Automatic annotation (TrEMBL):
Residues 9-63 form the HTH cro/C1-type domain. InterPro entries: Cro/C1-type_HTH, Lambda_DNA-bd_dom_sf. It comes from Thomasclavelia spiroformis. GO terms for molecular function: DNA binding. SMART domains: HTH_XRE. This is Helix-turn-helix domain-containing protein.
Length: 98
């Protein structure tokens, strides 16, 4: 699953005092990909979202939508399928609000 949106990665990365190069090394995601997410919000896979979320210690919800919700489940121990199901449910609920 991919979703195209503007991500909050830059602020979260800076808050953790990480450079793009350091985040790239931690996540094994190319620096150019991270730069694209920060600049224009290019597509991201669930797998990469989980890597970034874990590395920055921030929920996928906050990375994608900029919304902090303490009730959100810590996804670091979920499988990719579980994360996809949670994200699909969340997105369907948000679309119902619009």
């Amino acid at each position: 699953m991919t979703r195209q949106t503007k991500y909050i990665f830059r602020d979260a990365r800076i808050a953790k005092n990480l450079t793009i190069t350091e985040l790239s090394a931690e996540t094994k995601i190319p620096p150019a990909t991270i730069k694209a997410w920060e600049a224009v919000g290019s597509k991201i896979t669930i797998k990469n979202l989980k890597k970034i979320s874990k590395s920055l210690e921030i929920s996928p919800n906050e990375l994608i939508f900029g919304e902090s919700d303490e009730r959100i489940l810590n996804v670091s121990k979920l499988t990719p399928l579980q994360i996809q199901l949670v994200l699909n449910l969340y997105l369907s609920l948000r679309m119902d609000e619009d």
